[in-house]
Amino acid sequence: MNSANKQLCNSETANTAATLSHRFCVAPMMDWTDRHDRVFLRQLSKHALLYTEMVTSAALKHGDAQYLLQHSPNEHPVALQLGGSNPVELAEAAVLAEQAGYDEINLNVGCPSDRVQSGAFGACLMAEPELVARCINSMRSSVSLPVTVKCRIGIDDRDSQEELEDFIGTVADAGCNTFIVHARKAILSGLSPKENREIPPLKYASVFAVKRAFPTLSIIINGGIKTLQDAESLLENTDGVMLGREAYQNPFILNEVDATFFGAATSTQTRTEGLQKFIPYVELELERGTPLHYMTRHILGLYKGQKGGKQFRRHLSENSYSKTAGIDVLLDAISYVD
Q1: Tens digit of each residue's pLDDT (9 = 90 or more) over 232-263
Q2: How far apart are alpha carbons 312 and 306 in whole angstroms?
Q3: Which one of the listed residues 111, 124, 135, 151 is annotated catalytic?
Q4: How many domains does the chain have?
Q5: Which of 90, 221, 273, 324 is paired with 207 by a 20 to 30 Å CA distance?
Q6: How far apart are CA 100 and CA 67, in angstroms?
């Protein structure tokens, strides 16, 4: 691949990337980053880019697309992550996502689960860069939204820097301007998805090398980031950072994101003040018939390490699953930490 192709990035996509900032993102996480969690996280950061759980293009085509794509206007900026490998089907899904009002479409090329592999998408697509390129081209031709890719640094024994850069370059040639790279390879047989998030060693240097090879692309780094200080230091060699489990299990970390990454004033908001802003949403959803624990399960880590935090978690865990659980359960839990 010649240097001109490596640096492919037209002004239109560059301007889009500047408008939709990837300086700090919260990762798509199955069973975690649902619409309720995203509304809660938005009370802590106005600017972090939030990602949905992965939704397959097949589910949107054959299932209840309206249900799968529902989200609150309060979530924005929010990106929909799609799983799939059929260019036509992905384009149809992208159109639905644009109609639903999402800000970005992200293609999953990083999930190593058996279920995803059986559907011939996720991390196994790293072995088929030309197919990924066709998928990207098909979606970009169908919508005006930015279309991005989340991938690994390799799979199994296909984990050389040359193969990674060939994958990035091939997909970039199809018009993808932004790549979120989990700095671990995926081992497709023998490791569970959880083990694939922990056992393959982190290789940040591989992601840094991608940014050097493709200076005009937006390269976002993901994997093993525990603190905002660590995240900020990674911006010296990349264009943005994505936090996963830490952002979910210790959500109050987002309270400092706007000041640290987006130039906002330092937040004086307390944990309880952030949670109180979430209460009107909880009350509305309860009126609509949404069970309380669908929402409170996402806030269990809010008071991590704080006085009364264990009692807060215990009260919610023991009482929010009742069919009759109402807002009083949440208010009683808050009394342990006030």
Answers
A1: 999 999 999 999 999 999 999 999 999 999 99
A2: 10
A3: 111
A4: 2
A5: 90
A6: 11
